């Protein structure tokens, strides 16, 4: 991340009063609609000498309100993507009972005005806030004079008129439609975790794999084999990643195993990011190990044939 990043925990009274343009929302996936909103934030910030900022909840509000458990991006992922886009200031809040009971006016006064010194609010056209989600874009506009800010509303419509949203993208990932998901995201769907020791069955098959233990409850991609790109110690490599239960060898828990092409380093205990590029095939049950090895060789060849395509991106 860039050196100019600023992080403030508003629950611990880390108030930051430089004049800001503040984007509001959950921003799961930081998809192309969100990116459109952030570009508007950065443009406004440059034009009016403001700090490009976002207000983020420490936990996605839909988890608390609707019981959703799996997401496209962790809080750290959001910070990384948004900072790369040019957002400099990140302010965090707990979606607590006290916060949920703030009226729309109290949210504007106590958070946007008193704690953030907001001069511009940038939101999607369906943004809701305040107790019982009674506040909307018209509410924001109605208090502009009282609290000295302006409101900019951005739609999440693509060039073809289709509205983009995180719910649809999560479904694409679960259905294995990874190329569609990546198009709507504007970047590859990725997961992060630590490399841990597994059964080491892949090593015996001459396809040693890195087993990933996730550090966040990411949306579960469809079981099967993917062409991926992994990042370890700031270096990137192309790979094949299998999500599944290894059905050829009997019932097992779902695992995430990655065979990194042309790679032989010891990476146990290392943090690894896996970016999903293409879905290859389901997680078949083969008759024997030899049949599995033959299919893995075909997957490997197919992967090599895609490297030049993705190296240019």
Automatic annotation (TrEMBL):
Keywords: ATP-binding, FAD, Flavoprotein, FMN, Kinase, Multifunctional enzyme, Nucleotide-binding, Nucleotidyltransferase, Transferase. Residues 184-308 form the Riboflavin kinase domain. The keyword Acetylation does not apply. It catalyses: FMN + ATP + H(+) = FAD + diphosphate; riboflavin + ATP = FMN + ADP + H(+). InterPro entries: FAD_synthase, Riboflavin_kinase, Riboflavin_kinase_bac, Riboflavin_kinase_bac/euk, Riboflavin_kinase_dom_sf, Rossmann-like_a/b/a_fold. One of its GO terms (biological process) is FMN biosynthetic process. Pathway: Cofactor biosynthesis; FAD biosynthesis; FAD from FMN: step 1/1; Cofactor biosynthesis; FMN biosynthesis; FMN from riboflavin (ATP route): step 1/1. It comes from the Bacteria. GO terms for molecular function: ATP binding; FMN adenylyltransferase activity; riboflavin kinase activity. Its EC number is 2.7.1.26, 2.7.7.2. The keyword DNA-binding does not apply. It is an enzyme of class 2 (transferase). NCBIfam families: PRK05627.1-5, ribF. Belongs to the ribF family. This is Riboflavin biosynthesis protein. It comes from Anaerococcus porci.
